[in-house]
Design goal:
alpha/beta, Rossmann fold, binds magnesium ion, binds threonylcarbamoyladenylate, DHBP synthase, 16% strand, 3 domains, five-stranded parallel sheet
């Protein structure tokens, strides 16, 4: 698809171009447009085919509802059943601007826009180009952020061009976005209003008009597996760069102290302006410490900058969660998958490596250095031992008779029922692995609270999901011939058996790629020296 690029600096003087863009929208096309928050992909909200084009360009699952953008207040009556007094007060104060209000929808709003919900999200942007385009199109425009699904929302024209060129017939350049994070989203369709997405209009400002406004739990916490997402947008891992982020909630001194004590933990720092000189890592900045607006404006840019610099593991200094800072932290914590480090606590390192890689030796050495070792294999055995709550779950899934009269599990019978097809195997794994991860997490967290560093020794670090509770992952590597020699000497098994054991283990290359650190444990490397680099 050919993409036309428009640059609009003054909509009043560029009426012809605005009219061309409006014609595209009227004819059912989707177009990327600037707003004061982030760029959006807009389409006529009453044209289902046009709305589908938005989802197509974004590659977004179509159950995620869209925000409808209006330019005049009266347009809201084509979308919602009624506007309660308090809602009107709120809109009077903050529209046009970075606030989205959710209300029960009219039936004329299609499920394609509302994502099948009985409500619709409405906002009146303040960006003059957005307003001129909506006005000229003569219809409210549904518009999500203009990024490919899963990537940071674009805050400048060049990013939209990167993401959307060839995917849309037109992109409108209206300069850099003022705010840089998406609008505040509040629902008034509940008894007590709920803040679903914090933004430039703050919780306190909302409460000033509405009285009590609840904060949705997912703003600062990961969604639990079975928790309903109030806003479907919460389900997806949004706003994320390719680099893996870990957040340190502490002062500048603590941040620098952590980096000095843990060299090689991260390859980049994301910090506030003026701090980069003192930080012993390559650094990217996002605003100044005491100005959350400046942080919001830079955050998504900084994510993209880190990716373009090839950052792999980034340590980020957390801003304050006050006011607009709540919006910044919400985007940042989610991008970091809620991985936090506290300067006063220990860190959790997951270690993996195939048979004969020398993983056990490494763990012994780390124990001597004061680390607490959690043996994931041992935990795995314990979850199916007599008395474990997992046994009941397994009995429900695979038959009561897998539990022997003495309370132990009949491992053979269980295996004969579980290893029949992928679905059953997956069921067995999901029951046991969830508990294994839970136990390892409890143990590890308790130790880190005491300030101790924890090692999770896990042959299946990645496939088990244990990596997700670690601050970093380490692969102990040795070439096959070295490993073979070691296990032949150690275990007295035949070469054939040894090779069979290797073939059952996970792919070495993939593990190395997935790990934050690869430690070489074969001649001429000195394993103690290698370890000292990282611990
Ligand atoms: O600043 C913004 O709001 C930008 C610009 C382009 O206006 N737009 C934007 O749209 O961020 P989008 O689609 O990326 O995010 C919309 C958010 C999602 O989290 C979605 O789940 C939520 O609003 N949302 C929309 N309608 C909803 C509804 N009826 N109920 C609950 N959540 C809703
Ligand atoms: Mg978005």
């Amino acid at each position: 698809m050919n993409t036309r690029l428009y640059r609009i600096t003054d909509p009043e003087k560029q009426k012809n171009e605005i009219e061309e863009i409006a014609q595209l929208l009227k004819s059912g096309e989707a177009v990327a447009i600037p707003t004061e928050t982030v760029y959006g992909i807009a389409a006529d909200c009453f044209n289902e085919k046009a709305v589908e084009k938005i989802y197509l360009a974004k590659g977004r699952p179509s159950d995620n509802p869209l925000i409808v953008h209006i330019s005049r207040f009266e347009e809201i009556y084509s979308l919602v059943k009624e506007v309660p007094e308090k809602a009107r007060e709120l809109m009077n104060r903050y529209w046009p601007g970075p606030l989205t209000v959710i209300l029960p929808k009219k039936s004329t709003v299609s499920d394609k826009v509302s994502g099948g919900l009985p409500t619709v999200a409405v906002r009146m942007p303040s960006h003059p180009v957005a307003r001129a385009i909506i006005e000229a199109a003569g219809t409210p425009l549904a518009a999500p952020s203009a990024n490919i699904s899963g990537f940071p929302s674009p805050t400048s024209f060049s990013y939209v061009k990167d993401d959307m060129c060839g995917r849309l017939p037109a992109i409108v350049d209206g300069g850099d976005c003022d705010f840089g994070i998406e609008s505040t989203v509040i629902t008034l369709a509940t008894d007590v209003p709920v803040l679903l997405r914090p933004g430039a209009v703050t919780h306190a400002q909302l409460e000033e008009i509405l009285g009590e406004v609840k904060l949705h739990n997912a703003i600062l916490n990961p969604l639990e597996n079975n928790e309903q997402a109030a806003s479907p947008g919460m389900k997806y891992k949004h706003y994320s760069p390719t680099a893996s982020l870990t957040v340190l909630d502490g002062t500048k001194e603590e941040f620098i102290g952590f980096i000095k004590n843990n060299p090689h933990f991260a390859d980049f720092a994301l910090c506030f302006e003026g701090e980069e000189e003192e930080i012993p890592l390559p650094a990217v900045t996002f605003g100044t410490e005491n100005d959350p607006f400046s942080q919001a404006k830079r955050l998504f840019d900084a994510f993209r900058e880190l990716d373009s610099l090839g950052a792999k593991k980034v340590l980020v200094r957390s801003p304050s969660r006050e006011g607009v800072g709540l919006g910044v932290c919400n985007r940042l914590y989610r991008a970091a998958g809620f991985r936090f480090i506290s300067p006063k606590k220990g860190i959790i390192t997951g270690i993996t490596g195939g048979s004969g890689s020398g993983k056990s030796r490494v763990c012994e050495l780390l124990k001597e250095k004061g680390c607490v070792i959690i043996d994931a294999d041992k935990v795995a055995r314990s979850v199916t031992e007599k008395g474990s709550p997992v046994i009941e779950e397994l009995a429900r899934a695979f038959g009561e008779d897998i539990v022997l009269p003495d309370g132990n599990i009949d491992r053979r019978l269980l295996a004969s029922r579980a290893f029949v097809n992928d679905e059953k195997k997956h069921l067995l794994d999901s029951i046991t692995l969830r508990r294994i991860v839970e136990i390892c997490k409890e143990k590890a967290v308790a130790e880190t609270e005491k300030g101790r560093n924890v090692i999770i020794d896990a042959p299946l670090l990645f496939t088990s999901g244990l990596w997700s509770i670690c601050h970093r992952t380490v692969k102990i590597y040795a070439p096959v011939d070295v490993r073979l020699k070691r296990i032949l000497e150690r275990d007295g098994i035949s070469e054939e058996e040894a090779l069979k054991r290797f073939s059952r283990q996970t792919d070495e290359d993939r593990e190395s790629q997935a790990s934050d650190i690869v430690i070489n444990n074969f001649p001429p490397y000195d394993i103690e020296q290698e370890i000292n680099k990282y611990f």
